[in-house]
Amino acid sequence: MVERKNILIIGGEEFIGKNLKKELLQMGYNVEEVFDGDTGLEELENGKFQVVLLSSELPDIEGNRILRSIKETHPLSEVIVLGEHSTMRSAFDSMRLGAYDYLSRPFDLNQVISTVERAIEHCKKHKSRRDGNGKLSRRNLPSDMVGESSAMKSILDLVQKVAPTDSAVLVQGETGTGKGLIANAIYKNSSRWDESFIVINCSAIPDTLLESELFGYEKGAFTDATRLKRGLLETANGGTLFLDEVSEISPSLQSKLLRVVETGDFRRLGSNQEIQIDLRIICATNRDLYKEVASRRFREDLYYRLSVVTINVPPLRERPDDIPLLVNFFLNNLKVSGKGKKVISPEALEMLKEYDWPGNIRELRNVIERVIILTERNSIEVADLPPIIQKHKTVKQLFLMPSEERYFTLEELEKMYIEKVLEHCRGHRSRAAEILGVTRHTLYNKLKHFGIDEKKIASFKSSRKK
After folding, report:
1. Tell me: the pLDDT tens digits for 296-309?
2. Domain 160-314, CATH among 3.30.450.20, 3.40.50.300, 3.30.530.20, 3.40.30.10
3. What are phi and psi of 436, to 5 degrees?
4. What is the pLDDT of residue 401?
5. CA dihedral (358, 362, 366, 369) positive or negative
6. Burial of 286: CB neighbours in 10 Å, binned 0-12, 13-18, 19+
7. Element (H, E) at 402
8. Which SS3 state, helix, strand or coil, does residue 197 take?
9. What's the pLDDT tens digit per position in 434-445?
10. pLDDT tens digits for range 352-409
11. 260: helix, coil or strand?
12. Taking CA 425 as the corner, what is the angle to CA 420 and CA 431, rounded to the nearest 5 degrees?
């Protein structure tokens, strides 16, 4: 016997009329209708409803409060909000609170019914992915998500909260901060962990090719279309699609992507046939996407659809306490042929913590791999670090002066800087010339010009290494 699906309509007297209820009943659904939010919550306690149709304007009650209560007490029920006076903000708020979709007046009966059918199917798939005790089958966070700073802990907590849902997630942060790792962590902890995880870098593919990569095409759709090709949207059906650098999508393609996000339907290039998909979308960008909206480079309606939950990843320079953990992680996990395990000295580690890391975690990883390859000793020292990091430390120390002191002339600064570098190199002139980016001959001329004699250089040799 086929299980009949139950639908609850919560709305006012003139909410949507009787046509929808009549149509749903004819399609074999069980439909209950109430006219205020509190009664709707009572009905949910007494019965099992797969889908709730909720008015965003209820008499004597705030619709978002009812939506929040439904998702907290009945997370398996999908809620479709039917808005009276739609705005981007109201749609965004509803989606953020867990609504499956948001439809606005004037309501198209066929669109509402189609959305209900998709919500029913989604509810069924979501339920089948849960284990016997009703909890999501959880995967551990990836081991390479390393960090103990307050910022990183907040991100990990947010990942754990958002992962079990199907809400769209936007990950924002500078290049190299680990946005892809966060997207992968959300996928692995989601109810879709056993389905496909499809990644596409929107900035790496020309716009004309990006459309065919996403939507696919029919044979004969264009000159080189010699066979049917299924796009990544179709390939990701049932799973998760990760759109990296989503801000680079052109306005025309944004419009087509919006339709997919809103309806779950699309057409291959060269086809008139609608294909329905069920997938989760995670996006990432190194730009502030809201500023892109304000600059009219990104559609506002698409922004709200894709940013139900936003995760902002801070750059590495804002969480220096994570650097020692990351360094040890890379030292323990980067495998370089012919190289044994290495440790890092406290002085070298402190220098890494004081560097600004414009390339973030990706740059740190590359630096650690470089020193593993080039360092013969088991211990990594300051002298083993790339010159750019050593220069940064020296310049930073050079300008640490009391605010009440006078400014120096360029010549005074140049002399102080050369002395600092020599002190750092313990009087080793060839090494100092390399750090300064000059030849040994040029350095000898400057030493003579500034009166830095052999006695002074000898004092650097005996000084304690900073």
Report:
1. 999 999 999 999 89
2. 3.40.50.300
3. -75, -15
4. 55
5. positive
6. middle
7. none
8. strand
9. 888 889 999 999
10. 998 889 999 999 999 999 999 998 889 999 989 988 888 766 555 555 555 555 667 8
11. helix
12. 110
- Amino acid occupying residue 19: N
| Six token digits for residue 273 | 């046939």
Task: Tell me which H or E stretch contains 201.
Answer: strand 197-201
Instruction: Find the angle CA(18)-CA(69)-CA(301) to the nearest 5 degrees.
Output: 70
Please report, as a single letter, which amino acid is at residue 13.
E
pTM of this structure: 0.68
How confident is the prediction for the chain on average, in pLDDT? 84
Amino acid at the residue 326:
L
Separation between Cα atoms, residue 446 and residue 466, nearest integer Å? 23
H-type alpha helices, 129-178: 150-162
Q: For 110, how many CA atoms within 13 A lie in the half-sphere containing its CB?
A: 0
Handedness of CA 401, 402, 407, 408 (dihedral sign): negative
Give the pLDDT mean for 255-282: 92
Q: Are 24 and 113 in contact (CB under 8 A)?
A: yes
The reply to whether CATH 3.30.160.20 applies to domain 6-128 is no
Q: Write the CA distances from 121 to 76, 95, 241, 279, integer angstroms.
A: 12, 18, 19, 12
- 289 token code pair: 């996407």
Query: What's the confidence (pLDDT) of residue 234?
Result: 93
